[in-house]
Amino acid sequence: MLVTSVQETEWAVLSLSVQSWYRHYKAKPDDKTSEIICSAAIDLFNRGHRTQEELTSILIARFPLIAPAPAGLH
After folding, report:
1. Is 42 within 8 Å of 14 (Cβ atoms)?
2. pLDDT in tens, 52-63
3. Residues 6 or more apart in contact with residue 11 via CB below 8 angstroms
4. b vs e for 26-40, b when ≥16 Cβ sit within 10 Å of the residue's Cβ?
5. In angstroms, what is the C-alpha Rg of the chain?
6. What is the reported pLDDT for 69?
7. pTM for this one?
8. Average pLDDT over the chain, rounded to an integer
9. What is the predicted pLDDT for the residue at 43?
């Protein structure tokens, strides 16, 4: 994915949106999830969703947190 020229303030909006997603689900950040959520946030931003509130609400709606099954259920 090609990212257009992004200003420092725009990076802050993206970062805060991703952090808000993690806070909403009370999830601990991990590399795989961060890659998915950050990529989605950048894609949404490039499609014209430019506010933290808008990005956060779309991320929460599109990427519900699914807790892993307890070890005994595998």
Report:
1. yes
2. 999 999 999 999
3. none
4. eeeeeeebeeebbeb
5. 14
6. 45
7. 0.79
8. 86
9. 97
